[in-house]
Write a structure and sequence with these properties.
Strand content: 25-35%
Helix content: 10-25%
Organism: Leersia perrieri
Number of strands: 8
Number of helices: 3
Largest sheet: 4 strands, mixed
Protein name: VOC domain-containing protein
CATH architecture of the largest domain: Roll
Strand order of the largest sheet: 1-4-3-2
Pfam families: Glyoxalase
Order of helices and strands: EHEEEHEHEEE
InterPro entries: Glyas_Bleomycin-R_OHBP_Dase (IPR029068), Glyas_Fos-R_dOase_dom (IPR004360), GlyoxalaseI/FosfomycinResist (IPR050383), VOC_core (IPR037523)
Number of domains: 2
Radius of gyration: 16 Å
Length: 138
């Protein structure tokens, strides 16, 4: 069993984007988040999102590209990135409508799933898939 000293806590989800302030503003209006801060360099933004911070940074940056490699985008419209962003809402239909009305690309309208969750999908302004679902209670 791991000791508390090495027990992880998920601190950030970092989304690589084309325009940091524009993506932060989009997530604020489309998904209902409050922008916590935008760094004066315009290369970092954070949303108020609970225990784990959602952050935005440019796709290409000198600080990390040489160390960890460049961010790879899907090669065609029929492909998508390897990560999906998921948000829970009490009213998925209303949240989906707000997202689409504020520039999200409709992918799949909300529908009831066999496991008890209502789920819809949209694309953000950078092509990332955002899953909008109801919370499944045990």
């Amino acid at each position: 069993m791991a000791s508390d000293a090495v027990k992880p806590a998920l601190a950030y989800i970092v989304v690589y984007v084309e325009d940091v302030p524009k993506s932060a503003a989009f997530y604020s209006t489309a998904f209902g988040y409050v922008v916590r801060r935008i760094d004066e360099s315009l290369k970092w933004a954070e949303l108020e999102s609970g225990a784990t911070t959602i952050a935005f940074t440019p796709r290409h940056q000198r600080e990390t590209d040489a160390l960890t490699g460049e961010v790879q985008l899907p090669e065609s419209a029929g492909e998508r990135g390897p990560v999906e962003i998921c948000f829970d809402y009490e009213d998925v239909d209303a949240a989906y409508r707000r997202a689409v009305d504020n520039g999200a690309v409709p992918v799949s309208a909300p529908e009831q799933k066999s496991w008890g969750q209502k789920v819809g999908y949209v694309g953000d302004i950078d092509g990332n898939i955002v899953r909008m679902g109801s919370h499944v209670r045990a």
